[in-house]
Amino acid sequence: MEILIGDPITTCLSPSVYDMICKLGFEFKENCNIHSIVAQNGEVCWKTITKCVSYTDPDQSLNYWESVKRLGPVCEAIHLHVLSLNKEQFEIQYSPWFQWTSFPELFPEVFEALGSLHSAAISLSLMKLTSCLERALGDAFLLIGKECPFLLRDLLASEALACIFGQPVMDVLKVFIGSPRGLNLRNILWHGFASPQEIPPKYCSTLLLFTAGLGQLLESYCQQTKVSLAHRSFVTLTNLEELIVFPDITHTVLSVLEELMMKSAFILKIMLPYWEIALIKFKAHRFADCTMLLLTQLEAGLRRVFAAVNKCPDTLLTAEEEAAVRLLLRIAEDYHSRCHPAFQLKKQVLSCEESVRKWPLLPWPEEPCQEAARLEDTETNACYSLITKILHELCHHVPENHRVLSVFDDHPAEEWSLLLGALCSTQVSMLFCPRAVLEVLAVLRSVASHCQQVSRQVASSLQLRHRQWEERRLHSRQRQNYLSMRASVRLLSPALYLILLLVALELVSVHSVHGKNTCEYQQYLKFCKSVLQYSENLEAYTRPEKNKWRETIGLTHAALMKIWTFTEKKQMLIHLSKKSTSKAIL
């Protein structure tokens, strides 16, 4: 971490953004009468506020710089007004107007944070407030619109919200949270740019009052149009028992973390209050608050590492939105996780290949090998033919400079190890995997897991039966079973190589699953599960207590027919992948 040690960083805001947030709203010193902003009954006088918004000539686009200046005294008056209220007064006057957000209990918390004068707590409250406001505005949008915009910027610019709240009001919101050219409070906090002391508390008070004012406007609109606001349901995490994979954090560990926070070069000193309050929230079992803070600081820390390693200190500072997104994507490009299903699947494929590669090294007496070869029948030969056809199709999708050689020799070529190694070294995006990708990975992992078990069982049975053969301890029926095993193993080796190649190729192209519509995806998942069914049955048939070696040939033939049919229709992910491929020699 020596590379991170240097001159202390005093801000992550670029000079222009720092001036916009920390200075501009304080330039005008005029006093603003609070009664011109808020009536006695708590009604927000939007006309006074919207008058402060400035526009440029001749196109009448927003002048963010001038608007922040002129809104400064208004924000100061609102902040002093909020601080003058006690909790009971605040709730009586404003609580009814927070109901439209579907999370009204948040706002008394924000009020208390403002009264505490704790900068990190105020910044956290502003993060939660802007998040809640964004969601509530999305619900309001759906009163008129059909599909809520993905970006807050687009939501605030929508005709639907302008119709409900009025364009001047939406312009006010754009100044505070809707554009990188304005205060942009939501983004600089949620992306870990602003330290606690850089966020003027008056902006939190102002957005608190604005949220109540928007509730008043919305109620008026709903009464006039006779519509009612419906709230979208929150996301509910399912299968939590599968997500709880990390050990509990003890008091001892927390003490160590407190020490590390003070010494770590990863943590910016100006951001330390966020880490301290995150720890407090964790101890209080406020895990959502803790997670919000840690996510923003994780991004800030990664940005610092990136800037230091690449010797580009300017990337540590705020930039236009597009540049900030590009930077985050660059940081995430090479992200790998040993716990990720894709990484685990790669390990399984390579482990299984290594295991199958060792089969020829096991004892193979000449006599039973010759007899086993004679036992091969029409169905076995049909399997060989199908494997050859499928490999001919798959070989068009292997990496350059790799050849898929014959899998029917007693000693499969080392190129198989190199080929699967090359496929498993191909980068697969792990940072964000949608549900469809994770479902496919889960099935492929199960396939690989069963193939691993099959390989272990085959190796164990071969060793045991060979020893019994050499010691002449096999009865007539056991001898016949051993011969069936040898005949079956001659087929299972290329069959498993084929399955491993199929799994590895689909893994490399797994994100192409988004190219399938719902029906196609369900068909593809059904195909993957049929391969899984084959691997499960194969594992069952090759268990020592089963010894159904002859049956594995029919099982393999049926599975190969399904694979060939699906491959011939070009419905696999490798056929959707846009990556350039090269032909290989079979």
TrEMBL record:
InterPro entries reported in the protein's UniProt record: DUF4209, ERMARD
Signal peptide start and end residues: none
Stretches assigned to coiled coil: none
Origin superkingdom: Eukaryota
Taxonomic path: Eukaryota, Metazoa, Chordata, Craniata, Vertebrata
Protein name: Endoplasmic reticulum membrane-associated RNA degradation protein isoform X4
Organism of provenance: Octodon degus
Pfam family, one: DUF4209
Residues covered by the DUF4209 domain: 133-212
